[in-house]
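hi support,

uploading two proteins for the ticket. first:
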Amino acid sequence: MDRSFFAQREFFPGRARGLVLASFCLLAGCVDNSVVAQVPPPPQPQPTNMVRRPGVSPSGAAVAVVSFTGAPEGQQAAFSHAFDTASKTQDIVMAEPAAADYLVRGYLNAVPEAGGTALTYVLDIFDSKKHRTQRVEDRILLKAQAVDPWSVVNDSALTEVAQKSAAALAAVLTNTPEAVIAANETKPANAPPVASAQAAEGGRTIVAATPPAAPPDVTASAGVLRRVALH
């Protein structure tokens, strides 16, 4: 009998087993990857239009701004002052975190875009149980660009974003149960009931409902905007 046949049998089975196992491993990896790739991504929250409710003041729901981060130190201070002023103009009542109906955590960012630089803000709004109930975001476009996007952000731009974010927060607060109840308690007995807003007053705010997020830490003392440290 041909000895080469036995030699092939002695050599090939072990090698074949290794190749077969490797093939199964590769195949299993391909199957796993294909299964993962076919899983649809989680549904994204759909934006809704939230406008300021007529006849309801934001002051009916006290708020504490626990943080507003993202800008360099100097511009952060300028924005904080502008936001504080805009909040008073919008009739927003600031409170200590422990006494507030809602907590707000804000973010600023400056990013290059075609034809300029976008200065954006995001507000995450938490209820008194520290569950995030709303996310509000918007931007303005500056017609200037630089390697450092923040270098083109001046006080005028910061003031504009402060006013927009304060107006957006006020619109959200006027749609809260606390503000609506306060409006009904203070109106004259013969006044009509407060109705939901159907049209924007001077624009609209895009608000996306979001799932609960990690709540801010409210154990520290408040600052000018009633901000506390986050951990």
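and the second one:
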Amino acid sequence: MVVDVHDAMPSVGRKFLLAGKGGLNLTHSEPENVFVSRYGARREQMETTFQGFHPQDVRSWACSLGIETCVGSSGRVFPADMKAAPLLRAWLHRLRHPQAGHAVQFHMRNRWTGWHSPAGAPTRLDFDTPTGPTQVDADAVVLALGGGSWARLGSDGAWVPWLRSSGVAVSPLLPANCGFDRLGGWTDHFANRFAGLPFKSVAIAMTSHLGEPFHRKGEFVVTATGVEGSLIYAASKLLRDDILVQGQATFYLDLLPDLSVQRVLAEVCHPRGSRSLSSHLKSRLHISGIKMAILHELLSKEQLHDPVRLAAAIKAIPVTLSATRPLDEAISSAGGVVFEAMDDNLMLTAMPGVFCAGEMLDWEAPTGGYLMTACLATGVRAGQGVLKYLQRAA
């Protein structure tokens, strides 16, 4: 079998290497029933996919390439050296120099521009190449075109109209694991002083417009216009969908998640004598810096000097968001080719011989290894589907 990979980028695996800047979170070590729950509405489809390539297989695959993995304190799985490049080099070496079978041929700077004749030959493709336009015929095609985030690395969503015009159902691409703009923005003083700094050891809680609850401890970062970071990403689907439906979304920030409201109220009410409110809260509750600043930013003077209202705000200060950050800034995207448009092997029912894999499919998940595992698993499933398809056609 001859396998050709056409890539619009000058070199292979650019988004893979970008993921490596955070240590290359390959998968997660949590139980599989918990793991699959992270895919929300697409749990059933992803659970079926993982039967052919489950999270432990990711670690076995890396090990087969000579890359040992380790489990972090959060349960996330990384290469032991926390680097992406060695894994990518070993992977490409195996593909280019297999011990058996035919080597994979990589064609770089080959940008797909659509179907040459979609009605009669869905596996005849047009490409722009360094030597000019060309057409490629194939017995089967796997599209792994990414979603709509990080366009400079190739995931620009340009494929959406081409598939839709061929009768393939594609859900709109939306930001996932993304930052948000705060309604009304921050004051200049707060933004100039605290943009880029984290809230640590906090929790956020919300209930979506559909009644879905969310509560988690962690940390996130203030931006010039709003918020981003791991804790925000974990709630981003609910926040995004609330904004789409209601025009805004609100989460409640708990600055002291390890203390009860009663304990906080008791400390706030403790006599402070001649000390300022800031000194009092720092002394009694260790609130200072960005945590003190957010209270001044979002509370009125009356609220700040009312112990009951201040204590309530320390435990649940509302932060209202008005918009997601642009899709191209998001870590990943939601939407894409719906599973109902494909058969069990991820082949498009409207285009026999064409398979889809990766982030261009209509699933989303939080960060934590779920994105990488799903991309690899759907790639395996599509590849196995191609083999079945070709065997039937032989």
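thanks. also noticed: The CA atoms of residues 160 and 331 lie 19 Å apart.
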